[in-house]
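Q&A log
Question type: sequence-to-structure
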Amino acid sequence: MKGTKIKVAILGPGNIGTDLMIKILRRSKYLELALMCGVIAESKGLELARQSGIKTSSHGINDILADKEIKLVFDATVAASHLDHSPLLKEAGMVAIDLTPAAVGPYVVPVVNLDANLEALNLNLITCGGQATIPIVKAISRVVDVPYAEIVAVIASKSAGPGTRQSIDEFTQTTAKGLVSVGGAKKAKAIILLNPAVPPMMMNNTIYTAVSEFKESLIMESVNDMVRQVQEYVPGYHLKIPPNYDGEKVVTMVEIEGAGDYLPKYSGNLDIETSAALAVAERIAMNMLRN
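Response status: OK
Response body:
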């Protein structure tokens, strides 16, 4: 495989799958998008894929499983569907990058723990809220103990499609678990709010962390370093409110502006998920090509 690209497929041609398709076509060094699959032949995502010269299928996962050259599959459907897809992809020996909150495989945030999971057959990207806030919680927890973390993710209602709305319960549960297992908090809670404001607002994430002690300079240095690392694959990731201590907790806020590849720039919640998926896939593909 050395000197070639890794063949990949996208399962789910909705907003997330279509944005991911464009990111792969524009930016990927190591991925060849061989197939885009859905279940509705006339869907907008499949039509855009055809116009881009990508092979498409409306037979769901079946045509992916039949193509033995595909090594990696992005699942951009919904949590319930991924529970069905996961064992099939595993049996086929294909690496699954799960963009749903199904939480089958290990939780992965590129800047935090990707290196430890490069050999996993199923990698879960948690949620958009998790990708946005876990890096901040990790930045703080590597400096001081964080007995409790709570995050509030506020996204534009217009950027929450059917898949997001169907998976809101899984969002809160999976994000909270990720804040603990990846972010390093002892306990955690996650809340998501859909804001109907017009014009639509950017994604904002408020992170509350109880801390054992407030080491101001070390926390600031750690958070700023983490923000810079996230910006390497999500340029629109910004520290809106730096860590502030009120005597009980540290409050931090990050805002995400989307790249505008396919979706409006206010859809930072979708952009951070697809950007993280691309970052993960690029590293895995690079690893495959080296071996």
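Response note: The first helix runs from residue 15 to 27.
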